[in-house]
Amino acid sequence: MRVERLSQDKIRIFLTFDDLHERGIEKEDIWRDIPKVHDLFNDMMEQAYHELGFEVMGPVAVEVFAMPAQGMVVIVTRGKSQPSGDDDGDYEDDIYEMEVTLEESEDVIYYFQDMEHLIEACHRVQLNLEDGGSIYLYNDKYYFLLDEVDMENQQLYNGIIAILSEYGVASTVTKYVLAEYGKLVIRDHAIQTICHHFK
Length: 199
Description:
- It comes from Ammoniphilus resinae.
- By secondary structure, the chain is α+β, with helices and mostly antiparallel strands.
- The chain folds into 2 domains: about 1-105, no CATH class; about 110-195, 2-Layer Sandwich (Alpha-Beta Plaits), CATH 3.30.70.
- Helix content is about 35%, strand content about 30%.
- It contains 6 helices and 10 strands; from the N terminus they run ββααββββαββαβαβα.
- It has helices at about 15-20, 35-50, 115-125, 155-165, 175-180, 190-195, and strands spanning about 1-5, 10-15, 60-65, 70-80, 95-105, 110, 135-140, 140-145, 170, 185.
- The strands form 2 sheets. Strands 1-2-4-3-5 form a 5-stranded mixed sheet.
- β7 (about 135-140) and β8 form a beta hairpin.
């Protein structure tokens, strides 16, 4: 489990499928109202508090992005009506009013802080997958979109995800956002094009 702050009232939590399996949670359980999921959320909030000083009481918006092979990204946003502290103090700290939304994507999208990391990743991926992918520039980051991976070959698929995770970060930005707001750098054959031009 990895936690990072996005703003004063928003954090992002990366959960691997190993994180879920350790707690006996299946991917499908994440949007069910069961004790194991509540315990997972409490663990996430505890880690966020210890690592980032991010404290949650009252209303929160929780967005869950499920991605194949990578795991899940959970965005937690604090509501504006946090308890002031001069209440009677009879509310329980571990009670949250949660509004949960879930999105699932079959696309593989990673972003890279600089072009060098993207180039290295493409050279490594090319050993497993000769061609494919698109590249966008969005919010000063390079986004690598791969939607042609052979889903049937799980070993190949997991290998590609492992390489991309080493150099980049799994993205919750969808291909539709990239198409609408990003700048298209390479439309098709991104792996081949990058490896050809950057030895």
